[in-house]
Every structure is written in C-alpha cells, then in structure tokens.
Amino acid sequence: MYEPKPEHRFTFGLWTVGNVGRDPFGLPVRDALSPVEIVHLLAETGAYGVNFHDNDLVPIDATPAERDQIVHDFKKVLSDTGLVVPMATTNLFTDPAFKDGAFTSNDPRVRAYVKNHNLGLEVPYRYGSEMRIYLPDFVVLVDDGHGENDLLRLVVEVKGYRREDAKEKKATMDTCWVPGVNNLKQYGRWAFAEFTEVYQMQQEFEAKVQAEFDKMIDRFSVAKP
User: Fold this and answer.
1) Interatomic CA distance for residues 201 and 108, integer angstroms
2) C-alpha distances in angstroms, 107 versus 139, 142, 143?
3) Residue-averaged pLDDT of the chain
4) CB neighbour list of residue 34: distance below 8 Å, 6 or more residues apart
5) Contact 205/192 with Cβ under 8 angstroms?
6) Which one from 8, 23, 31, 56 is the annotated catalytic residue?
7) How do strand 152-158 and strand 11-13 relate by DSSP bridges?
8) What burial class does residue 74 get, using C-beta atoms within 10 Å of its C-beta: 0-12 exposed, 13-18 middle, 19+ buried?
9) Which helix (H) or strand (E) holds 35?
10) CA distance 192 to 134
11) What is the pLDDT of residues 56-90, one digit of tens each?
C-alpha cells in the first residue's frame, strides 16, 4: 500500500479536509474541524503542507484580537508538526470589499485600494473645543488621466450613519488636509470623498472621478496659450 511522505510534497487545503459535506441539496454531514485539528490530521497522514483558500483560516469578520490568536495558534501547530504553507489565495467573489475593490473593480480607473488599518494615516481635527483624531476608511488609487506614474490618491469615508462630528472631519479634509498635502508636492495628488449611502457609492464615486477629470481639463485649457 502506498503511503505518502513529506518528501513527496503532497499538500491539502484547509477547505478540503475541513469540508463539512454541505451542498445545495443538504445540510452538513460532518463536524467542523479547527485549522489546528486539520494540521495535526495532515501531519499524521504524511502530508508536506497545507494551503489557504479565501478566509478559511481567519474569518472575514474576526476582530483583531481573534485574528492574532488564530494566527498565533496556527503558527505554533505548523512549528510543532513541521508542515509548511506553500500557497494562499484570496476571496475575490463574495465579500463586497473584494467583489468591487482592488482586484475586481467594475471601474477600470480603480487601480488599487487599501483599508486604512495600521497605515499610520491619521488626521487631527477640532470638534468644538476638543482635539480629536480621524482615521479614514480607505485609500483608493485612481487613474484620473494623469497616467500610471501620477495616480490620484482618493481618501474614501463610508458612512452608514452620519454623526455630528462627521461634518468636522469632512471640513478638515476638504479645507485643510487635502490642500495642505497637495501643496507640499511630495506625496502625490490627494482628494477626499465621503459616501453617505452604500447604494450611492458607485454613482458618487463616478461623480468624484469625473470632477477630477474636469479639473484636469480646466487646468490644461487655462495653461494652453
């Protein structure tokens, strides 16, 4: 009987070994296994490695603390068993953040985007007599007609409910931060967009990009003799 060994370099995905047997016609027929349990099982069978697919290791809605614990436990079991992770893929087709984002945006002018998490992008603003720190949601790289080497950096804020301090944040971005950074001419071109309703995002985004196009055309027309 053939027995796999680590030197044969067989690898298996978490989603395959951990499949609970659910299909469009029935409910799960097997108990769910944790990633740690799956790695131990693969190690016992002589596997070489384990692969990631989508968010089968860290759930998309995991808190930072939960994520850190999951990653810590997974690294430990890899170290204990000697298994490696030779491949990882991302989910580009279910969560809205990826479905219409950096990888698969419906708008060809969107070249990349990133969530403002641990990037150090903080904007001080005043709310009444109190100084506060504003953390924007996303930064989107937009091709607004200046070419690949001069993409617009669009700071995007998504609001489901617009609190009173949101007005001060927007005012600070529009009148202070964006003009100030652009005047430095060291960090590229920046703009700010606030989306107040999710269903309006596409329309408002197109309007914002169109506005940048219009500004570019106006500047060119004025400069032209």
Assistant:
1) 16
2) 15, 10, 10
3) 81
4) none
5) no
6) 56
7) unpaired
8) buried
9) helix 35-44
10) 13
11) 898 877 888 898 999 999 999 999 999 999 988 87
Q: What is the pLDDT of residues 196-223, one digit of tens each?
A: 655 555 666 667 666 765 665 455 444 4
Catalytic residue among 53, 73, 143, 146: 53
Confidence of residue 224 (pLDDT cuts 50, 70, 90): very low
Alpha carbon separation from 78 to 14, 19, 35, 38, 134 (Å, rounded):
13, 20, 10, 11, 39
Cα–Cα distance measured from residue 139 to residue 80, given in angstroms and rounded to the nearest whole number? 39
53 is catalytic: yes
Residue 200 · residue 160 · CB < 8 Å: no
Tell me whether residue 137 is one of the annotated catalytic residues.
no
Q: Do the beta carbons of residue 14 and residue 53 sit within 8 Å?
A: yes
